[in-house]
Amino acid sequence: MSAQRFSIALLAAAMLAVSAATPALADYGFANWQTAFAGTGVAAGTGQAFGFWGWCAFGGGVTSGNSGECQFAQYMHASGGAGFTCHEEVDITSWNIVGGTFHISGSVTVTPSSATAPCLAFFPGPGLSTFTNIDVGIPAAAGHYNLGGLGPGLRGEFQIQVTQVR
After folding, report:
1. How big is the chain by its Cα radius of gyration, in Å?
2. Residue 45 DSSP symbol
3. Distance (Å, whole) CA 82 – CA 76
4. pTM tops 0.70, yes or no
5. Of 152, 161, 162, whose CA–CA distance to 41 is shortest?
6. 101-136 pLDDT, tens per residue?
């Protein structure tokens, strides 16, 4: 192997090692907490079904912070073909832990925009594209949470995973 090829191979190996050892840094900075959640439900005898799945990351501190992000999708299907499917991108500008759950402030963008009204009705609430101190219901302690059923007359499940990263 020539000296030039050896130098190129050594440089490539060094770049690979550095990129593998560098932690991921998202738009919101380093995450202190990462969460994932999923739920599905069927209203018995109605032909209605819904579901959601996604993740949130909270940065800037351990008990409160000034950055974060959530990405999640949801759907609602009703008999006769009515319903919607959408995606929410939540930009968290501040968060804190209150009463054992995460509370967030920020803004949300819905895709497709034609589903904004029904999508926001699920989270953070009807017409709230910006919000302050919303309780997201995610426990602020590391662990796996099987919250079981979603309510009377509904068959389904609700699961949350919470990890403290730093």
Report:
1. 21
2. T
3. 8
4. yes
5. 152
6. 999 999 999 999 999 999 999 899 999 999 999 999
